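Please predict the structure of the following assembly.
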Amino acid sequence: MDTTTIGDITFDDVVAAAGRLDGVAHRTPVLTSRRIDDLVGAEVLFKAEHLQRVGAFKFRGGYNALSQFDDDQRAAGVVTYSSGNHAQAIALSARLLDIPATIVMPTDAPASKVAATRGYGAEIVTYDRYTQDRAAIGADLAAERGLTLIPPYDHPHIIAGQGTVGKELFEEVGDLDALFVCLGGGGLLSGVALATRALSPGCRLVGVEPAAGNDGQQSFERGELVTIEPPRTLADGAATPSLGHHTFAIIRRDVDAIVTATDNELVDAMRLVASTMKQVVEPTGVLGLAAVLAPREELAGQRVGVVISGGNVDLDRYADLLAD
Amino acid sequence: MDTTTIGDITFDDVVAAAGRLDGVAHRTPVLTSRRIDDLVGAEVLFKAEHLQRVGAFKFRGGYNALSQFDDDQRAAGVVTYSSGNHAQAIALSARLLDIPATIVMPTDAPASKVAATRGYGAEIVTYDRYTQDRAAIGADLAAERGLTLIPPYDHPHIIAGQGTVGKELFEEVGDLDALFVCLGGGGLLSGVALATRALSPGCRLVGVEPAAGNDGQQSFERGELVTIEPPRTLADGAATPSLGHHTFAIIRRDVDAIVTATDNELVDAMRLVASTMKQVVEPTGVLGLAAVLAPREELAGQRVGVVISGGNVDLDRYADLLAD
């Protein structure tokens, strides 16, 4: 597949998405912690997308995509596949826009995410994450039922919507020296990259993947899209086997580095966020912070942004992780 | 003891305290949750004092008191007794103002609170909550060492400082139909009462105590100060045996009702706050919410304020409670 479509997704699309989301999505706060600043030796500014509607940034992309459906698409409905937060994002967006929604979810998705998705009125179809191809299931459903498929990350409208995270952050805090963003399929990172290059062009932009699933890092270093086995990691929201074609093209062009965090580092970061910032964040959500907490001398004295991507975690599981 | 001093603590003192705290204490945000609004059938506005410095409203009163020390008092130092959050508040305020601090803490105080207090540079003296009188220990230390005793709630400067919680809330959200405030010794409730009567005089003001330690409710109903055995409750921040003379006088005059919440209700409220609002709150901190979640038909369609008092809870203990 070619990547020439990269030119079709620009910061203008992020600005247009921000207009569609105005008054619908939350303009999430930027949180800070003196203790974390002391630990890192830098000024750390957290964009708190766990406080977004559905508890994750995914609402931005989902709503941006569905709000551009034409009448026929609205009447027929939307289908997507997701390990969780994108599912809720599409389900809520569909309910707000009065569009029928069908969601393909893995059988081992967190119960809280399944329940929330069903609660928004979506129909749920399950599949086995380790043996079945969710994209194929989604495509089949789209073809059979005339639904419009909105994938979780590799779609221009999704990327543009997620980019509003970066737009809001830079509008609120101004230039940053560095910005750390969680990386699964790359919708958030590529969208934020468009905003970064437009609003704080000198900012060092770093994607952070789970160490067990570093397909993005491999792709970035080899210069070609690498696909891995579905990784097993606490960071279920970033357990993607590969970047997308659109997201990879933007990431190659606009991102400075991709680093990784281990599950143990994620748990330490979750505990730190709970004890110092009093925030409940899901494992995927602290990828950026975990990377910043790894000794990084280059951050000394800098202004560093960190995107917290989401806070949807089963409480029993969360309790287990805090008690580790 | 007489209660004529009530006339000496007015909303003017709260306004003066706000001036001293400006730029030092956080102006904490007001949080909302659509799901909690749906559950309660009202618009619920949470004043988020768990995001205050030291993780609790107590910083306001502590700093307001210490910033009024004269030179001799500053040189000699401050002493106080506290189950935790007031200890941290005095310790941090003392460090900011360069005043030596001695803190009398119960041997069973949460480890996180002891560690944080010591981390601010205070000297810690421990006592047994169930056999020793902390006020007497504090008074002895004050006399022996020439220290100024700043008790955790029954002091005009403490009450005025805590009142800034209410002042900020009403300034941000305007009139409320009802406001629920956690009640231990009554520093927060009496201070907020002064702000309520000045800024939203028609607001129904409700104090919420742990059911196991309802001395305040008994005092309120009998019209005289009732002292009980030190209660055993999850709400360690409200495990006080009685109100203070100053706080009771204001509460009698300005508060409409005192209700209680059980430990089980506190745990349910903590879980709800974690899952919907993504906030880590200590058991004492959800007293107000627990009361609002009890079926209260009178709240239907109203604008209801709830003060979240603090978020300092050992993570292991917090994990145990979430997993219940």
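Residues 156-173 of chain A form the longest helix (18 residues). Chain A has a mean pLDDT of 94.
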